[in-house]
Amino acid sequence: MIDLNLIKDIINLIQIIISAKMKEKIIKDLIISYLAIIFIMLIITYFLIYPLAVDKGTAIATMFGWSAGLFAPLSAFVLLNAWKEQNNFMVKRDLMINTLEYLDEVSRSIGQIY
Q1: Per-chain mean pLDDT for the chain
Q2: Using the 8-state DSSP alphabet, how is residue 102 labeled?
Q3: Fewest CB atoms within 10 Å of the CB: 11, 33, 43, 78?
Q4: Would you state the pLDDT for residue 59?
Q5: How many CA atoms lie within 13 A of 4 on its CB side?
Q6: Phi, psi (rounded to 5 degrees) for 2
Q7: DSSP string covering 23-91, please?
Q8: What is the distance between the alpha carbons of residues 41 and 46, in angstroms, rounded to a whole number?
């Protein structure tokens, strides 16, 4: 017979492992994207904005605002993709558990017939 509780525990353990890896991936992606935006901001500021700016402090503050404005939708995109991947896994997990329960019920019914 199939030990359904053991299989459910294994599936839940797999979900925990995938969730931890997903968190690491999200953090890594967000840090890399923020650093890339800051680097681009510094290049634009140094070569284009800074030489023309009268008030250098305001120019730098404006560029930090610009970089934050770019980072917000980018981080939303990363988080949305991560949520979709996790949600897809949870749907598949629920389908596997339901299928295993159904197969266990069919197996018991066949066992009762014979």
Answers
A1: 85
A2: H
A3: 43
A4: 86
A5: 12
A6: -85, 130
A7: HHHHHHHHHHHHHHHHHHHHHHIIIIITTT-SSHHHHHHHHHHHHHHHHHHHHHHHHHHHHHHHHHHHH
A8: 8
